[in-house]
Write a structure and sequence with these properties.
241 residues, alpha/beta, Rossmann fold, 6-stranded mixed sheet, 4-stranded antiparallel sheet, 10 strands, 37% helix, binds adenosine-5'-triphosphate, P-loop_NTPase, nucleotide-binding, AAA+_ATPase
Length: 241
């Protein structure tokens, strides 16, 4: 990948019949950037993400993820990205280690690599002591961080997080974001959707989608200036109420 951009999207559009769910969105995300993708319910975020990760074909426009075309190379995209949704898919009745091994296997890692990744994830998340515990017994915040780590078990360049911290309090969300920063510091790109405006403040740049269109895109600092707001909450309310 010879471009400074992890994600390049140009007039990407999705129609369902006469309805335009995603209306010619255009943006670029730099490698290593933490990019917040915001919008009210029904704004078109999920439809856009499905196109970006190669699950849904665009009606019009162009998208490149890790250098691969969303329209013609969806399989290559799937191998080069991580994805974690709010309803992340850890197995409650497997242990922490078994979950890591299971997903390592799905991604086709060698036994040696799975062993290395298991040790790395347990140490980084400080989960070594509970490595043999069933996932069902872990607090939600730990499960979310484990699901995040597992979504990157195959070392993707870009990770998509779709409302990754639903249902936990701001302190636990903050811990999750420490992990996001560590990932970005290693040069990986993080594309994250959230309904929590404290999280929008943590992003390098934020886009706000309204009725299928990106109506604003900048750093949280610049957006607050542009909309004469004191918080991202206020920016969001002014745009996407
Ligand atoms: N397969 C589909 N057929 C028809 N309309 C659809 C389809 N999928 C989504 N839509 C419509 O497209 C619009 C955008 O939906 P989308 O799920 O992308 O929004 P969203 O921003 O992700 O919302 P939320 O935050 O609630 O997930 C909605 O009006 C939805 O009803």
């Amino acid at each position: 990948m010879n471009t400074p951009f992890a994600i390049e999207v140009d007039k990407l559009t999705k129609r369902f019949g006469d309805f335009i769910a995603v209306n010619a969105i255009t943006f670029k995300v730099k490698k290593g950037e933490i990019f917040g993708f915001l919008g009210a319910n029904g704004a078109g975020k999920t439809t856009a993400i499905k196109m970006l990760i190669g699950l849904s074909k665009p009606t019009e426009g162009m998208g490149k993820i890790a250098g691969f075309n969303v329209d013609t190379e969806p399989e290559k995209i799937k191998k080069n990205i991580g994805y974690m949704s709010q309803k992340f898919s850890l197995y409650d009745d497997l242990t922490v280690v078994e979950n890591i091994q299971f997903y390592g296997g799905i991604y086709g890692l060698s036994r040696k690599k799975i062993k290395e990744k298991t040790t790395e994830i347990l140490e980084e998340l400080e989960l070594t002591e509970v490595s043999k515990s069933l996932v069902i017994s872990l607090p939600l915040g730990w499960k979310q961080r484990l699901a995040f780590a597992i979504s990157m078990v195959h070392d993707p360049e870009i990770v998509f997080l779709d409302e990754p911290t639903g249902g936990v309090d701001p302190r636990v969300r903050r811990q999750f974001w420490e992990t996001i920063y560590q990932v970005a510091e290693k040069g990986r790109t993080v594309f994250v959707t959230t309904h929590y405006m404290d999280e929008a403040e943590y992003c390098d740049r934020v886009s706000i989608m309204v009725a299928g269109k990106i109506e604003a895109l900048d750093t949280p600092h610049n957006l607050k200036q542009q909309f004469e707001a004191t918080s991202m909450d206020e920016v969001f309310l002014k745009l996407a109420r």
